[in-house]
Design goal:
The protein is an all-beta fold and 303 residues long. The protein has one domain: Neuraminidase. Strands 1-22-21-20-19 form a five-stranded mixed β-sheet, with no helix packed on it. A five-stranded mixed β-sheet has the order 11-12-13-14-26, with no helix packed on it. It has a four-stranded antiparallel β-sheet with strand order 2-25-24-23, with no helix packed on it. 51% of the residues are buried.
Length: 303
């Protein structure tokens, strides 16, 4: 089994860093600071060096962000979907009826997600108190409709597709499971779900994830200080050691899409580099972020 070690990158730490993605059209890295409600951006050069280039306030919290073909970025923020314009102006597109509120009133917030190749934007939710079954996964389609894809989740987290887009992987970090569903790229439907991975204990629970160009999964292990590479059958292939316990997500970035960027979060224990991004070159490449290809007005929840 391959063992690698990630090194800290230059951008200042976040409070709760999450969701790095590579915007190939703009040639920049995007990630979020959930607790601060910030979208952050960085350039990545051929040597793998990261230089932060800007940030924008999206809302009280923000869990996921993706580029939008109509301009700017679309985000899962607060209890719904928000558009962030090129000048950094944030505008709420839709508040979901079953989501929202705050940590003191049993509220929920948007968490991780991603877009498929057709440009549908999937984003999940979780309760602030992480109570079981309070999370869901939503699909923002290219016609502006929002559909509930899955409910009864606890912490709807990392999302990624196999290279042929016939399988979609979803982490539910509450019970520490990674599910594999059959995926229909024409309709965006999830069917025939099964548990691929059961995680937990000192190695951490599966959090954010990405799928490389060879079809293997990379899962950030929250609480375990590592990222793990798995075969599509669930065999452990590689471990990337990270000197921060709360590793939250990962993505391939840079001009060659061969730099694995890992986000982390601050925890209760003092760790000098907690909240920073980390990088490593694992010897494989991964896909860039797909953009949201739908409208930025008139969104409606239909199911």
């Amino acid at each position: 089994m391959l063992t690698l070690r990630a090194e800290p990158a230059a951008p200042p730490p976040a409070d709760h860093g999450e969701g790095p993605v590579w915007d190939a059209d703009r040639t920049e890295l995007l990630w979020v600071d959930i607790a601060a409600g910030l979208l952050r951006r960085a350039a990545v050069d051929a040597a793998g060096e990261l230089t932060e280039t800007g940030s924008a306030r999206v809302g009280d919290t923000v869990g996921v962000v993706a580029p939008a073909t109509a301009g700017g970025w679309v985000a899962g923020a607060g209890g719904g979907f928000t558009h962030v314009a090129e000048d950094g102006t944030a505008r709420v597109l839709l508040d979901l009826p079953a989501e929202g509120g705050g940590p003191d009133d049993g509220g929920t917030r948007m968490n991780d997600g991603a877009c498929d190749r057709a440009g549908r934007f999937y984003a999940g939710t979780m309760a602030f108190d992480e109570r079981p079954g309070a999370g869901a996964l939503y699909r923002l389609d290219t016609d502006g409709t929002v559909t509930t894809v899955l409910d009864g989740l606890t912490v709807s987290n990392g999302l990624g597709w196999s290279p042929d887009e016939r399988t979609v992987y979803l982490a539910d970090s509450g019970p520490g499971l990674v599910h594999a569903h059959r995926y229909d790229p024409d309709s965006g439907a999830f069917t025939d779900g099964r548990v691929l991975l059961e995680t937990g204990g000192p190695d951490g629970v599966a959090d954010g994830l990405t799928v490389d160009d060879e079809g293997c999964l990379w899962t950030a292990m929250w609480g375990g200080g590592q990222v793990r590479r798995w075969s599509p059958e669930g065999e452990l292939l590689a471990v990337v050691e990270v000197p921060v316990a709360r590793t939250s997500s990962c993505a391939f970035a840079g001009p060659g899409r061969d730099l694995l960027v890992i986000s982390t979060s601050r925890g209760e224990e003092p760790e000098p580099d907690a909240g920073r991004l980390f990088t490593v070159r694992p010897g494989v490449t991964g896909p860039p972020a797909q953009p949201y290809r739908g409208p930025l007005a008139g969104l409606r929840h239909v199911v």
